[in-house]
Design brief:
heterodimer, A: mainly alpha, Arc Repressor Mutant, subunit A, 5 helices, 2 strands, 10% strand, globular, B: alpha+beta, GMP Synthetase, Chain A, domain 3, 2 domains, 3 helices, 30% helix
Amino acid sequence: METKQLGGKPIEIDEDGFIQDPGSWDEAVARDLALTESVAEMTDDHWKVVNYLRQYYLQYNMAPMIRKLCKETGFKLKEIYDLFPSGPAKGACKVAGLPKPTGCV
Amino acid sequence: MDLITINRREGLAFEIRARHHAVTSDMSPGDGGADAGLAPVELLAGSLGACIAMNVQRYCEMCGHADGDVAVHLTVELADRPKRISAIVVDVELPGGVPKSRHDAVRRIAEQCVIHETLKDPPRLDVDIL
């Protein structure tokens, strides 16, 4: 397991850059994680997705279905990918400090 | 139906041939491939998207909206043990002139495409090792 400076503090990440302890996440950490996902600036739209993912995860201990994410944030699938080029699972969930999604594509 | 043949190119890259067409499938570097083509999962989802797009485009043209293009965006959700696709999420974009009153009909048309029907009612799979 690797340790990386994120948001000005050392944080453990896995081989794909997902943080290991969701409790170590804060907005500064999210901004640094976003840079690793080709998101130069976190806009209000980025935060809308990230905050929804985070709130859902903290409530249910799992990520929401992608369709639910679209419905609750009001973004179409393509708009989510425009915000997070790696997609909702590998991109947005990483920035939101959620665990790595399962499987490969 | 014509025979579909898959032959190795190199590494994990394989060429899929049917009739006089060929496409390459490969995995991303993170999954051990060289990214020489779409991953099998992407091909499966893409196949559904293409099938839906063709059905819906034909329907739109029948309804007098021949001047616009249908587009389809998809992604998949994956699950473990066993590794599989647990959901395919599909957004269908219609030409501008198609009224909301047609959307339910478009959904039915999309869901009637061969690949959608096949995934809904999976076929018998018969694999032999030669």
